[in-house]
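User: My advisor, Dr. K., asked me to get a structural model of this assembly before our group meeting. I'm new to this, so sorry if the format is off. These are the inputs:
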Amino acid sequence: MSKKYIPNRGFKLATIFFLGIILASTAFSQEDVIDPAIIASGEKLYNANCTQCHAINEVVIGPALKGIEERRERPWLLSWIKNSQKVIESGDEYAVALYEKYKKVAMPAYPFTDAEIISVLEYIDVASKVVPQVAAVVAAGGENGAGGSNEGMSNTFMYAILIVFIFVLGLILVVLGLIISLLTKYIGTDKEVSHEDQELVIDQEVDVFAFLKSNTVLGMIIFIFVAVGLKTGIDGLFTIGVQQGYMPTQPIAYSHEIHAGQYEIDCNYCHTGVRKSKSANIPSANICMNCHVAIKTESKEIQKIYAAIDYDPETGEYGEDTQPIEWVRVHNLPDLAYFNHSQHVKVGGLECETCHGPIKEMEVVYQYSPLTMGWCINCHRETNVKSLDDDYYTNLVELHNEKNTKEPMKVEDIGGLECSKCHY
Amino acid sequence: MRLKMKINTIYTTIIALFMFSCAAGPDNPGVEFSPQMYHSTPYEPLSQIVDKEAGRWVSSNGEDVPAEFYNSNPYNAFNMTMREPVKGTVKRGQYLTPTFAPDDYAAADLLLVNPLDSTKAILADGKALYTRFCSHCHGAKGMGDGKVGKVYKGVTAYTSASVVNKGTGHIYQVITHGKGRMGSHASQISPEERWKIAMYVKVLQQ
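Assistant: The format is fine. Below is the predicted structure of the whole assembly, which you can bring to the meeting.
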């Protein structure tokens, strides 16, 4: 290992070196000083080019780089970084073994100069001496796992509060009852209270049953009962044919909350048809595999994908014995109505959440909107046509403005309420 | 009089409870208003009913014909209603681009010609497409620091010396066939969209 020393510190360093030998202490050997500018430029290059696949202390895609220069000679490292494929092709034993060990993921060729590579190696050498912070990584992992159960916790908490509340109310009732009976007894025996007053209190019979049987009360109870019943019945009638709230159990417990919410994967990434066709499409398994070839491979739910596409995570090979994943369709628009996603998302510029609700918070997807005709029509009446920057609408907007100058052009104005637009 | 009232009340309750059960629930889509008009007779994409007896109660067809709700294609594997395009076929309006061996990035970079002009509108399209298909891994600025990229690891930063001088043909080839840890995105992104993304990536690299 060759180190560059700053000349004017030579004496000091020599002294330290001498002391180091005397004390036989490793602590002093770390006092080797390399030009900080070289380390800084090395760090910059390292962060821009290496961190995607390498870390100092842990294996990421490629090996951990701690003490790399103890494992390999500098000339070998130079040729490897410049063109790793060439080194492998030359039949270098160590290179081939490395390539096999790291799942045949080739390290790209980096057109660096020798000085640049050396600066990176110097930086790695410095960084190798920093104590790794393993605890932080573990804590971060734990945080992710606990996120899901928050809602359940608050629900049980609410129930607990409710039960305690009811219990306390019951207790108050009992105590009040006791006080009344005590007072009645006291008044009955107290000689200072006049006889008439005693009679008034003690002989006062409250006939609860007679009161309940009176026509007024009975009539009221029946009225309330019938009214509530009718209301429920009519409300029930309105839900016929409306599947709002439908939340079927899916064959794989896919969570939009994790994918679209936590990791902010765009809806379009998986639902590729949404701007091109009538249906937004359920993604095929190859889209899942863009990530899950490496992420959460041990999960039971992910292994259901592997089973469906006959993928062997050990060898990374695909077989022939494939079968479809039978997702349950959530939004079942009746066949009598036509709906086109691309028309609404691409042309109309609607956001997915406008109709599908808080998808980014849904652990299991449910139908958020009623999808009734009234709901469609209402939106067509209220939504302005995005006519700016679109030549298609120029004439229509002109005609519309001749008729009505104040109101902007709505979907309704260009035939959004015509029957045959959706029913044919 | 009272008895009649009581009976009426009981009826109302029963009807109310029955109506209440019409609503959809977690695993129950609810009661349909006119089932015969709700279920598609032609093959419907993304919905498939394999049970030949489903909806027999509303069927006016004979017993030997599959019932009203049945919607499966018996000629496809697993009775699916959708099929993959035949291998080697090209979609209407889609141009052919010369194909190279999936790992021949150098040839692709050299020989693939970008058919699009670098106009503002196309770059804006490229940015939108990049945000949809790339940014969760490669990051909004292409630094390989997207939220998924940080977990997935091994995501290339566009400023990395290994890719900064590669042309749009190389990027096109990578989107089509994948490279290293990245999988093929050909099923999600059309050839034209790939070129638009490639052009926007070059903008990010500047």
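One thing worth pointing out at the meeting: Chain B touches chain A through 66 residues (CB under 8 Å).

User: Perfect, thanks a lot.
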